[in-house]
Design goal:
Strand order of the largest sheet: 1-2-4-3-5-6-8-11
CATH class of the largest domain: Alpha Beta
CATH superfamily of the largest domain: Alpha/Beta hydrolase fold, catalytic domain
Helix content: 10-25%
Structural class: alpha/beta
CATH architecture of the largest domain: 3-Layer(aba) Sandwich
Order of helices and strands: HEEEHEHEHHEEEEEHEHEEEEEEEEE
Number of domains: 2
CATH topology of the largest domain: Rossmann fold
Shape: globular
């Protein structure tokens, strides 16, 4: 062996050792708890904005990082707590536990507070609460991009920023990732009303920086419309209980004590992602209720393992999965819908046949309670609306055009509770209670 060849082989081996040493995956980082401790910095201010009562609110987060970490750029997970947009905090048991566990695996984690509360407790104001939460999460994302481009206090790898949470937190994260066009939101809020709140980006802080994320962790959450998830969007990890009565596993009425609006749950989002080729994983907690891992250690361990497997894949690590995706429950049919440009969106995973007859008529009526004017939105055309007393007496009828999606005036009725009955062209009927309160 010549001296030149020996020197070349020595250099090559040295480079291989150096590359391996620089590869965090090679040490088990991201897959295992390679750190024994984490550091917590509490109550960092990432922004501020006015809450539902028009009072200025400081927005805080807690930052978790591995102790004695020498890596110059760490992946970041931003966790968002649940609480139906009226309660909860950044120290809730689920987001606290997940932040601690993933910090020990080598991730930086941030658990954020966001603006809570809405009144009256109806669908119109619930939608505004979601917008405020979306705006605040985007401000938190920008906060870390800003830091990476300025002081670099947190040493974040901005190519690997992940967002996620439970219940309302997951709903927030899903809408940050997949609601990217105000046109999509027009069914729920007028352009002027959205603009008055600050638009989808909001004004909660750190303007001018990116809000790009690289994957979503969805714990028992949902998206308003499945087709907001589009080809080329970031990967999705979902886990959800089949008996969830608050945010349904498939498609249904979100009900945190009061029915508010229809949302597409994790089963629907998996069906959609599969149909359009978006990388995704789903784990089903069979017969489990809403966010079961908050109070059940075994469910929390399964959640940690499943999210771990998903993230090491996104990070490009070659690690043996700890928890394989299990069998899904229920069949999910993607109901008729369209994109902003009017083109149809109706793919079903493994099939191009949309089973429209399997789709139930769903109607959104808001605000409820109402002072007289009521908005009616439906996934089907509505031909007629009948207003009944609770005794079954018909009080008022609105005959409409097939594209009926508009405001009706009940101002001539006295205060009380009434039944709104909507009739579609295929003779499907939908009934809901409405309260007039002036």
């Amino acid at each position: 062996m010549t001296k030149q060849l020996l020197a070349f082989l020595t250099l090559l081996i040295g480079l291989q050792i150096q590359v391996k040493a620089q590869d965090p995956c090679s040490s088990g980082r991201y897959a295992e708890a390679v750190f024994s401790q984490f550091n917590l910095t509490s109550n960092l201010t990432y922004g501020q904005n006015s809450n539902w009562a028009n009072s200025s609110t400081a927005l805080k987060l807690d930052f978790y990082e591995p102790a004695n970490d020498t890596l110059a750029a760490r992946p970041l997970i931003i966790w968002v707590h649940g609480g139906s947009f009226i309660g909860g905090s950044k120290t809730d048991p689920d987001v606290k536990a997940l932040s601690e566990r993933f910090a020990l695996k080598g991730y930086a984690c941030a658990s954020i507070d966001y603006r809570l509360g809405f009144f009256p407790f109806d669908s119109t104001n619930a939608i505004k609460a979601v917008v405020r939460a979306v705006q605040d999460l985007k401000a938190a994302i920008r906060y870390f991009y800003k830091d990476a481009q300025t002081t670099n206090q947190f040493k974040i790898d901005t190519n690997h920023i992940f967002i996620g949470g439970s219940s309302a937190g997951a709903i927030t994260a899903l809408h940050v990732a997949y609601l990217n066009d105000a046109c999509e939101f027009s069914e729920y809020m007028s352009a002027s009303a959205l603009a008055s709140l600050g638009g989808l980006e909001g004004t909660s802080g750190n303007p001018g920086y990116s809000t790009k994320v690289h994957a979503v962790i969805n714990g028992c959450g949902a998206l308003a419309k499945y087709n907001w998830l589009e080809a080329g969007d970031v990967p999705l990890c979902s886990f959800h209980g089949t008996n969830d009565g608050t945010v349904t596993y498939n498609r249904g009425l979100v009900n945190p004590g009061t029915p508010l609006m229809y949302l597409d749950g994790s089963r629907m989002l998996h069906e959609r992602a599969c149909a359009i080729g978006v990388s995704n994983q789903i784990y089903t907690f069979n017969n489990a209720q809403h966010v079961p891992y908050i109070s059940n250690a075994a469910y929390m361990d399964s959640t940690e393992r499943f999210v771990r497997d998903f993230l090491v894949g996104v990070m490009g690590c070659n690690q043996t999965p700890l928890l394989e995706a299990n069998a899904m429950q229920e069949q999910a049919f993607l109901y008729p819908t369209s994109y902003c440009d009017g083109s149809p969106s109706s793919e079903i995973c493994g099939s191009n046949n949309l089973v429209e007859q399997s789709v139930a008529m769903e109607v959104l009526v808001y605000p409820n309670p109402s002072e007289g004017l009521v908005n009616v939105r439906s996934n089907f055309p509505i031909l007629k609306v009948n207003i009944y007393s609770l005794e079954g007496k018909i009080l008022q009828t609105f005959v409409t055009d097939p594209a009926f999606n508009k405001e009706i005036d009940l101002a001539n009725l006295q205060n009380g509770i009434f039944i709104l009955e909507m009739e579609a062209p295929n003779q499907q009927l939908s009934r809901t209670k409405i309260q007039l309160l002036r």
